[in-house]
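User: I'm curious whether this sequence folds into something compact or stays loose and floppy. Could you predict its structure so I can see for myself?
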Amino acid sequence: MIETFGIGIVLRLGKFCASHADQTLGYIIEYKYISGRWTMPLRDLDVEAALPDRIKRAKQSSKSDGCKTFKAMWDRQNNDTHKEQSAFITDKGIFWLPDNENDINHAYSGPTTDYGGEPGKQWFVLNGVVYYILANIHTHPTGPQWEDSPSNADLNFAKNWKIPGYVISDGGIYKVNANGQNLGIIDYNYGNIFNCDLDQNIVEELR
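Assistant: Here's the prediction. I'll summarize afterward.
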């Protein structure tokens, strides 16, 4: 696909088609190039109607309440479900995803194709508002039998999505950059998980 002034142009069935994502209105408008001119809109696709159920069911919180959300994720994993917990950090807040598809060593966030845009610039529309996905954060289980640091799957997730990933574990909070490289621990003391007033590392990191 070629991006030109916000319009993606593709060759489809021997004809050029253009798809313009109107993120304000939440529609994708498709045009076709015939006989030297663009047609009237070929079809409108309601982006919000195709929104993944996991986003509709996610618990939303502001970035300023991020450490409280991450603590709740940590507590839910260790005290309630014994399932990894995952959240998207967007430009307008945090979406803590449901855990019905998760287990003790896996958190499901869905494929990139569930969202608008392309990896690194993905978005979704909820209640008429456009949210851009900036990063993912998830928990790792506690105990000596589990790995604290990001797994190969975590590295591949960040690389495929082209967004940073964060892992909350017994050993601290790890960061993976958008190229899938493990940058190591960015917070050792759990200050932002268990006492939001002690440490603001992750909160500052995700602003």
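Summary: The chain has five helices and 14 strands. Confidence is low (pLDDT under 50) at residues 1-16, 23-27, 41-45.
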